[in-house]
Amino acid sequence: MTDTIYDVAIIGAGPAGLAAAEQILKYDAQVIILDEQSRPGGQIMRQPPKEFKVKDWLRGSIYTDTKNLLHRVEDHPKVNWRMSACVSGIIPLEENGHQVWFQDATGLNSLRAKKIILCSGCYERPLAFPGATTPGVMGTGAIQTFLKSQQILVGDRFVFAGTHPLQLIVAEQIIKAGGKVEAVAFAQPLSSCLAILKQPRIILSHWRVFVAAAKSIWRIKLAGVPILFGCAIKNVNEGKQLNTVILQSVNTSGKAMTNRPVRKYKVDKLGLCYGFQVSSELARQAGAKSVWSDNRGGWLISHSEWMESSLAGLFVAGELTGMAGADASREEGYIAGIGCLLSLRLMSHDVAEQTTRQARRKLKKHNNFAQALAQLSKLPVHLLETVMTGNSLLCRCENITCGTVKKALENNPHSLSANSIKLLTRTGMGLCQGRLCYANTASLIAITRNRRIEDIGPYHAQWPAKPILISSILKKRQQ
Amino acid sequence: MAKRITNQITRSALITLTLNNQQISAFEGETLATVILLSGEPACKLDKAGNPRGPFCNMGACYDCLVTVIDPASPDKRLKSRACMTMVKAGLRVFTTQEDSI
């Protein structure tokens, strides 16, 4: 069994991966880009199928730079692409470099690369509440990617509920596409959202984002859609399809205000928008160090000034270093690309320093903005206790309720770590491998035990980082 | 119910596949999640308690949209596949909410 050896394998073809690739391609280095989607762009630029022609795809100045980058790299003749490839593990090799395992239509495969740049992005954080798994309850980002890529409107009538302003952008896109939006509900009070306007430096550096948000709000209002504050999900109907969404009033700390009437909506789609978790499983599986961040997306991968993780030769860029959006990811990818060239001795330290000066300046501004956005969209402190009632499904894959986990905590007073709760209850052992339940499980333990999530730890990340077919493992063995 | 946006979009060739033994048409490049949502019955699999699940994340993370597919090239093989990550294909047989669908 011989693996092809590349100079650099980039995992994830979003803004970070594409920006890294572009820098490395300027030099005589063999680059391969792997991504689980069929076309590059990442979630921010989920492209329509090649067979479609979409006029004015992703209009708006906030997309311009990232779209240009996508087109430059997608058409670059020197890139080796491995699309529709789901990476299941990264194994550091003793001699030189890393082995990357991935599953695609042909089965389980592997390749070798001297350096890895991991740009695995993030996913949406769902909340647990009664009815949360009824078909029709979706991530707001999912509703948006169906629109961006497949060009379908997933329902007739929508409610959005969350804390992140992404729901304003998506609500507006739904209205424009002909959907009816009944309400956009923020759990936090209006004052927490407006606090960002007290930071003039951020408004100046990111005025395009503020203009885009203001336009969305204006168009939502024009369509007569209420934007609610201090209003969170309570429950939805169970059964074959969503038809009823109930929202509840919550105070500034996220506690239910039971003296206020609930709001009931007859809709077929609910978009949840309670923030994101970084996709750091692969990096952690490989052995890279991580550090907890409450409001920047969970277990973030630590890195050097050249974006190299604690594991030599494994570089990281984009959301998995802390949620900061496409613009920041692009700059980080750029720096990681240069860092990789430096470590391959294809570029001198002086040139590398000089080449990244501007990117570092821009990155700092984007990170300041990301910090303010994280502050704005963080969950009110008691919201999870209000929403995650005993009968809510905490682990969606294994059908384990919040009540079951609370009981396990009561019966095992010394269990503290997420891993021990996983072993006791099977939370996080299903097909999503804890991606969807980790943040809620860890928060539930933290609340019950009155400890910090740093003390609770992540779920152990191991190979394969995504489910693979046993038949493809057997096939690989026979080769 | 889901619908295709038609304004300023040119789609590809239509192909035929089956969804729960019913013949349906879809455009090349569409995903199984799309055709399932368009069918008006968004449920893809049954969960461990026997309750229906539909597409949730549309990015291959949640596994709620797992369906059973039979490829015409290997008609004896039933494969579990994430509907959001699988493209339609002529002659593909797709089954949702079957009892064995996990």
Report on this structure.
- The complex is a heterodimer of chains A (479) and B (102).
- By secondary structure, chain A is of the alpha/beta class.
- Chain A starts with a strand and ends with a helix.
- The mean pLDDT of chain A is 95.
- Chain B is mainly beta.
- Chain B has one domain: Roll (Ubiquitin-like (UB roll)), CATH 3.10.20.440.
- In chain B, a hairpin with a 5-residue loop joins strand 5 and strand 6.
- Chain B is globular.
- Classes of the chains: A alpha/beta (479), B mainly beta (102).
- The interface between A and B is large, with 57 and 47 residues.
- Strand 3 of chain A pairs antiparallel with strand 2 of chain B, so a sheet runs across the interface.
Blueprint (SSEs and pairs):
The complex is a heterodimer of chains A (479) and B (102).
Chain A: E1 5-11, H1 15-24, E2 31-34, E3 53-54, H2 64-74, E4 80-82, E5 86-92, E6 98-104, E7 107-118, E8 122-124, E9 137-139, H3 140-150, E10 152-153, E11 157-162, H4 166-176, E12 180-186, H5 190-194, H6 200-205, H7 207-222, E13 227-228, E14 231-236, E15 244-249, E16 263-266, E17 269-273, E18 276-278, H8 281-286, E19 290-293, E20 298-301, E21 314-316, H9 325-343, H10 349-377, H11 383-387, E22 393-395, E23 400-401, H12 402-411, H13 418-425, H14 438-449, H15 453-456, H16 470-478
Parallel strand pairs in A: 1-2, 1-7, 2-4, 7-21, 9-17, 11-12, 11-17, 12-13
Antiparallel strand pairs in A: 5-6, 6-7, 8-18, 14-15, 15-16, 19-20, 22-23
Chain B: E1 3-4, E2 9-10, E3 14-19, E4 22-27, H1 32-38, E5 45-46, E6 52-53, E7 66-70, E8 78-82, E9 93-95
Parallel strand pairs in B: 3-9
Antiparallel strand pairs in B: 3-4, 5-6, 7-8, 7-9
